[in-house]
């Protein structure tokens, strides 16, 4: 069993427009945009990062907004819900706020003894706010009081068919997760002693395969401290039979990728070097930052990328 994984690092999804996506996360949800850059493989598309003040691993939601992208089709083999942690008594405040802003899909419910507020993002993305004790410091957004603000991730919920659920549970066990609780078709796994984003739920479903599009989670990333730990994880996964990519420099972390048995793309990302490697901490996410290989495209990209507030 691996000992290097801390919990979630980030979650990356697809969107149909940058402006609406940026407005939802920075205004409606009150997160900080900690990086405005572009997709390494498609530089005409932004890569936007939202999180706490510094983009601490376990707080960061990232997006590839492909202009006009069609919505994804929900189904098996995907992350159906990304859940954020909020303080214990914060859900009534959030329900009123989200309702007042026309956010769709609002449902108050309970899962495994925790109260949650389910809602949809601009592209039908599945989200939840989970009420719990959480001492992480939030980003001080202008109109979101600190005593209700989002603390970071609570969990991700993978919707998997029975075979994928069983195989993914075995993989999570290998990665250091332990079964924590279960009810009906939901089983919770938790990594002991990890970061504050230490929960992965598996919901077993009988459904057609999901079709990826706007509103779909592209991949989930797990945190390791550094490159040495990442190489240890990579070797162990490959020795177990997984097809793992070489280490890829993503400017703000190093990454490896592999496909989980249930169909969800997994990444293992380092906590180093962080989002302040090329911007002062006070101005994270303000300027358009380009990977070195795309620096020569700046003039063109600044013309074709959808304008979003600095």
From TrEMBL:
Keywords: Dioxygenase, Oxidoreductase
Pfam families, alphabetized: Glyoxalase (PF00903)
MF GO annotations: dioxygenase activity
Matching InterPro entries: Extradiol_RC_dioxygenase, Glyas_Bleomycin-R_OHBP_Dase, Glyas_Fos-R_dOase_dom, VOC_core
Annotated SUPFAM superfamilies: Glyoxalase/Bleomycin resistance protein/Dihydroxybiphenyl dioxygenase
The keyword Transmembrane belongs to this UniProt entry's keyword annotation: no
Residue ranges of every copy of the VOC domain listed in the record: 7-132, 152-271
Entry protein name: Ring-cleaving dioxygenase
